[in-house]
Amino acid sequence: MELSREGEVPAARVESLDREGRGVAHVDGKAVFIDGAVPGELVEYAAYRKKPAWELAQIVRIETAGAVRTSPRCAFFGTCGGCSMQHVEERAQVAAKQRVLEDALWHVGRVRPDTILRPIYGLSWGYRHRARLSVRWVPKKHASLVGFRERKSRYVTDMTSCEVLPRRVSDLIQPLRELIGSLEIQGRIPQVEVAVGEGLVVLVLRLLEAPSAGDEARLKQFAERHEVQLWAQPAGPDSARPFWPSQSPELYYTLPDYGVRVAFGPTDFTQVNHATNRVLVRRAMSLLDPRPGEKIGDYFCGLGNFTLPIARCGAEVLGVEGSPGLIARAQTNALANGLAERSRFVSADLFDAGACAALPASDKILLDPPREGAIEVLKSLIGRAPARVVYVSCDPATLARDSAMLVHALAYRLVAAGIVNMFPHTSHVEAIALFER
Question: Which stretch of DSSP H or E encloses residue 391?
Fold first, then answer.
């Protein structure tokens, strides 16, 4: 802690990073969370929100820079809300996320893993194969903005490139701005969803109004010039349909270790970082260790990202997911990969106690739930708990809550846990954990 004389700007020594990527300091017994600060720095700061036990603040001046501070690659960092940690050296980002995971497991779940797994990581730039870009028509400038929203704002960042999008997609931001600005319905397109597969880019335009004949011609010309597929989405995600070309190859990604090709639609949920996902699947299979003759449940299975590799390893696997559309595509993927005989898929609401109670007993299970976690599935395991549970999490808090259920109520041991750096340069923490009875 550093104290300042009365009337001076307060200064503090930054100790660590919190789960939002802010620097953490303590001044006069109060926690101060400082935007953009890194561990080891001495900074002058100004508070913009004060509570009795904590303050939120921004940097006024860096007196002593921290060793893990680095120059952000993106020209729009600090304004754009897409990334919050580009100023932190990548190894320090990973270390901070690991600490967030361990703190959550202990403070929320009162559990500690026997082993800390080596962090999983892959591409750190150009990795976002899925993104939702906001669009705003600015009449005063007679121009459109296309990009992520600004930090702490509903405004769209005035950006012309993005370092975490694949280069091919980043290079489309300025042409997209020009395209939308040229349309008659320029104010009726609130977002563009990006989906990137191997060799194919799809842009899904949310259309609040049908394009005119002239707009259709401009959209087709854009798709042909930039060699992308345009989809139109007039309502919810299920309404999205190919616009131009009307017929084209499907989106897919591969899991080469298992000889699997996973086809997906442009509005389907998939992992954003394909390179890291390959490492994650490999780690999950190593921890789960599926073997011929075993019956395995893959809950929240989506398109079959883990289900198909489990089947490839020789086990019989049941994939369960709430979305009938995803289940249909998972079945198609199993058939296309020659794995239909060892994999079965069922649509069920895994947040419903009755649906979870109807799940068959398994030798092992893999869980990959959304942020809400998998508490109802875990409750259904009482009296018929499998020998091994592998849990892939996108939220440390719900993983910690569910870990408490597994360890304290179901008598599992938390054998190992570690982070998955699926979203480099952001504060988002994903993790994988192994539980055994």
Answer: strand 388-393
What does DSSP assign to residue 142? T
| Four-way CATH pick for 130-251: 1.10.720.60, 3.40.1190.20, 2.40.50.1070, 3.40.630.30 | 2.40.50.1070
Looking at domain 11-64, its CATH class is mainly beta
Q: Is 162 a catalytic residue?
A: no
Task: Give the whole-angstrom CA distance, residue 19 versus residue 254.
Answer: 32
pLDDT tens, N- to C-terminus, the chain (437 residues): 444 444 578 999 999 999 999 999 999 999 999 999 999 999 999 999 999 999 999 999 999 999 999 999 999 999 999 999 999 999 999 999 999 999 999 999 999 999 999 999 888 999 999 999 999 999 988 899 999 999 989 999 999 999 999 999 999 999 999 999 999 999 999 999 999 999 999 999 999 999 999 999 999 999 999 999 999 999 999 999 999 998 889 999 999 999 999 999 999 999 999 999 999 999 999 999 999 999 999 999 999 999 999 999 999 999 999 999 999 999 999 999 999 999 999 999 999 999 999 999 999 999 999 999 999 999 999 999 999 999 999 999 999 999 999 999 999 999 999 999 999 999 999 999 999 99
Q: How far apart are CA 35 and CA 14, in angstroms?
A: 11
Which two three-digit tokens encode residue 219?
Answer: 């959209």
Catalytic residue among 80, 301, 356, 394: 394
Same CATH topology for 11-64 and 130-251: the answer is yes
Torsions phi, psi for 291 (to 5 deg):
-130, 155
Q: State which CATH number among 3.40.980.20, 3.40.1190.10, 3.40.50.150, 3.40.190.10 fits the domain covering 94-123+273-436.
A: 3.40.50.150
The structure's pTM equals 0.94
CB 38 within 8 A of CB 14: yes
Domain locations in the chain? 11-64, 94-123+273-436, 130-251
